[in-house]
UniProtKB/TrEMBL annotation:
UniProt record similarity statement: Belongs to the FAH family.
Keyword match Metal-binding: yes
Cited InterPro entries: FAH (IPR051121), Fumarylacetoacetase-like_C (IPR011234), Fumarylacetoacetase_C_sf (IPR036663)
Sequence ranges assigned to domain Fumarylacetoacetase-like C-terminal in this UniProt record: 107-284
Species this chain originates from: Agrobacterium vitis
Region (Disordered): 295-319
PANTHER family cross-referenced by the UniProt entry: FUMARYLACETOACETATE HYDROLASE DOMAIN-CONTAINING PROTEIN 2A (PTHR42796:SF4), FUMARYLACETOACETATE HYDROLASE DOMAIN-CONTAINING PROTEIN 2A-RELATED (PTHR42796)
GO molecular function: hydrolase activity; metal ion binding
Lineage of the species this protein comes from: Bacteria, Pseudomonadati, Pseudomonadota, Alphaproteobacteria, Hyphomicrobiales
Sequence ranges of Basic and acidic residues compositional bias: 295-304
Keyword tags: Hydrolase, Metal-binding
Gene Ontology biological process: small molecule metabolic process
Name used for this protein in its record: Fumarylacetoacetate hydrolase family protein
């Protein structure tokens, strides 16, 4: 099933090129929202975490509502971020073997992004007025947690996966302090674009063999496959849940291949497609109109110059 939010937080099921409003099927049901407290309550269609926490109940209801409902063209609605305010957004760092050398990967690691960074399909990533060396958009597949867990073993990890979604991880490089800058680099407003919908895991036969492609203004810039993950999904869930309890609706972004990363600039149109997850589009706005040489990291490495990217060419903060 493909789940999306649209038009003032209506919940829909996407079938082909149409979306079927299933909000009323949620509003009609009472569930025990707080497991440690007596009583039941209605949940709102926009409470995605509660919805998937009770998926055994709501899944069949939404399937039936989608079968019996009438669809509207996707082109006639405004899609919103399909996961709106998760408790946690965990992002795996350096989780792809990028050069085919067989060199052992870096130790597994992750960082947090704030939920306030989330934006949805067709929205704009705004580059802030800070002296960053470069702004980048990282193509990623992310999983959505469906079941609460702490210290989940890898053997049980897939029981905690609800589904998958496209995610664009915005980054601003070059801000200090050195080795302690993930907060400044990753948690800017609009720096976590997700969508266009969440695809339940039963629709994805093999999440470890999916093509990931990102285009900038129609030019293919990132092109890799999830089979190249250094740490598989099960290990990622195990690691993240060893640090904190994972909650229904949480996002775990599974990393990127850095070789195709390149500078973002004002007016860019970014498109991301993980096979089976639809196409996510966003725009880029920079009021300062800063520019860089449009090279990927892989192209820059061939020049022999130090660092991952060339210097800023024009605009505020240019050398």
């Amino acid at each position: 099933m493909r789940l999306a939010y649209f038009d003032n937080t209506r919940l829909g099921v996407v079938v082909g090129n149409e979306i079927i409003d299933v909000s009323d099927a949620v509003l009609a049901q009472k569930v025990a929202v707080y497991p440690n407290e007596p009583g039941e309550a209605y949940i709102r269609p926009g409470d995605f975490g509660a919805l998937i926490e009770h998926w055994d109940r709501f899944g069949p209801l939404l399937s039936e509502a989608a079968r019996s409902g009438s669809g509207r063209p996707l082109s006639s609605v405004q899609l919103l971020a399909p996961v709106r305010r998760p408790i946690n957004i965990d992002c795996l760092a350096m989780n792809f073997i990028e050069d085919g050398s067989g060199i052992p990967p870096a130790p597994i690691n992750a960082f947090h992004k704030t939920a306030g960074a989330i934006s949805g399909p067709g929205e704009t990533m705004v580059l802030p007025d800070v002296p960053g060396s470069i702004f980048e958009a990282e193509a990623e597949m992310a999983l959505i947690v469906g079941k609460r867990g702490y210290q989940v073993p890898a053997s049980q990890a897939m029981e905690h996966v609800f589904g998958y979604v496209n995610l664009i991880d915005g980054s601003v490089r070059g801000l200090g302090p050195d080795r302690n800058n993930f907060y400044q680099m990753k948690s800017r407003d609009t720096f976590c674009t997700v969508g266009p919908y969440v695809v339940t895991k039963d629709e994805i036969a093999d999440p470890q063999n999916l093509d990931v492609k990102l285009w900038n203004n129609g030019q293919l810039m990132q092109d890799f496959n999830t089979r190249d993950m250094a740490y598989r999904i099960e290990r990622c869930v195990e690691f993240v849940s060893s640090v904190h309890t994972i909650e229904p609706g949480d996002i775990i972004a599974l990393g990127t291949n850095h070789q195709g990363l390149h500078p973002l600039m004002d007016g860019d149109r970014i498109e991301l497609e993980v096979k089976g997850l639809g196409r996510l589009t966003m725009d880029v706005m920079d009021e300062l109109k800063r520019t860089w040489d449009r090279q990927t990291r892989a192209e820059h490495e061939k020049t022999g110059r130090p660092g991952f990217f060339g210097p800023q060419l024009t605009g505020k903060y240019a050398p």
